[in-house]
Amino acid sequence: xxxxxxxxxxxxxxxxxxxxxxxxxxxxxxxxxxxxxxxxxxxxxxxxxxxxxxxxxxxxxxxxxxxxxxxxxxxxxxxxxxxxxxxxxxxxxxxxxxxxxxxxxxxxxxxxxxxxxxxxxxxx
Amino acid sequence: xxxxxxxxxxxxxxxxxxxxxxxxxxxxxxxxxxxxxxxxxxxxxxxxxxxxxxxxxxxxxxxxxxxxxxxxxxxxxxxxxxxxxxxxxxxxxxxxxxxxxxxxxxxxxxxxxxxxxxxxxxxxxxxxxxxxxxxxxxxxxxxxxxxxxxxxxxxxxxxxxxxxxxxxxxxxxxxxxxxxxxxxxxxxxxxxxxxxxxxxxxxxxxxxxxxxxxxxxxxxxxxxxxxxxxxxxxxxxxxxxxxxxxxxxxxxxxxxxxxxxxxxxxxxxxxxxxxxxxxxxxxxxxxxxxxxxxxxxxxxxxxxxxxxxxxxxxxxxxxxxxxxxxxxxxxxxxxxxxxxxxxxxxxxxxxxxxxxxxxxxxxxxxxxxxxxxxxxxx
Lengths: 124, 378
Description:
The structure holds two protein chains of two kinds.
Chain A: E1 19-22, E2 29-30, E3 46-49, E4 53-62, E5 76-83, E6 88-93, E7 102-110, E8 113-120
Chain B: E1 2-9, H1 20-35, E2 44-47, H2 58-66, E3 72-75, H3 82-96, E4 101-109, H4 116-124, H5 139-154, H6 158-172, H7 186-191, E5 194-196, E6 199-200, E7 209-217, E8 226-235, H8 251-262, E9 271-274, H9 279-288, H10 297-302, H11 319-323, H12 332-342, E10 356-363, E11 368-376
Parallel strand pairs in B: 2-3, 2-4, 9-10
Antiparallel strand pairs in B: 1-7, 1-8, 4-7, 5-6, 8-11, 10-11
Helix pairs in contact in B: 6-9
């Protein structure tokens, strides 16, 4: 899905989606939003929306939350997920997730914020 | 080349009622005395940062407070790599003739100067404010992610990680200034409170108050002949989400630059001072630097290889894990200990031979790397 087709939903801006960008010049693909390609410098990268599926690359179960807002949710699992589109993101996930699991994102509200939450495909 | 002409280190732990400037001043005075220099001899100042005293111009504040009049001064902010980054810069400033005697100083009342939540939250801000911090990670969580992948790839176990905490505590037990001196076992580490899996409380360095300083000079000022003969850096990413790999970082590239500048190689090394914010940090750095085979750092530690009386002594003061971690100054204690070892002043911790040392620090989440090669000249 490209930016010319539809609104790109992005959890970092309150939407139920995961946005990423692709350089139309050199085809580099990345996650953190920029107005240029960090490899070739070309302006105006294409904003796209992930299909929300991927593979778990790393996990940690956080028992000691950083503050009062998230403490009621602890322990919670934070994962790095490699999306099928080819970028990596940090998100919450089911506590049973393990490295290598195939996962799909849904969106949950934690501490008043919408954020991606991954579950094993087949468990959903 | 440059000489490290004096070192100063406070105990790490609790210094209630003492400020960032108090701790910096105490360490600076100790370093000046050690270097046999007066305030007027200092023409360069490099300082770190303080989360309890986040000033825009900490170097100038310290110049005024301590009574210096340097012709070159500024602060550096490079997370855990700050201390060795400042040492590298001071080395080059001395070599270039910009300054003759450069005071490098850091200190912070990180433990008693703020609440624990506020310390943990301040540190977590090394993460992305948009893509990471809202999810509620902590510094241990960033490193827990790295640990999970590294252990998956190389078969490292939680008990292997624990061996490094046990070793650092054993070394700290021989240093009166260490924050934690009671011996611990692998079982103690494994049974300690979970923080961010696979990391438990005793896999994590403490938060400490402390101050540390050294003087880096163009010429000798005393009988000490400790020289910086090589330095290197590598910077690959800031955020763990954007790290090119969770098993290959910038450590090897950084150390290769330092070794190349020094004209030395791994076989020449006699002493190690390696950043150890978490047991996984130390494991990865030892293994990526080629000082232990992949997956074997814990086993070597268990066998005594890195002990003060072992083949390649490591962090004989107890490292960040047990001497303590006061922020920018944390790893500077590693350099102070290296200096004491090279000048035969390490007392009961003295190693047989510390003639050539590799020091390596990292900041962020294994993001910024600085390596130094130190040599004890005759």
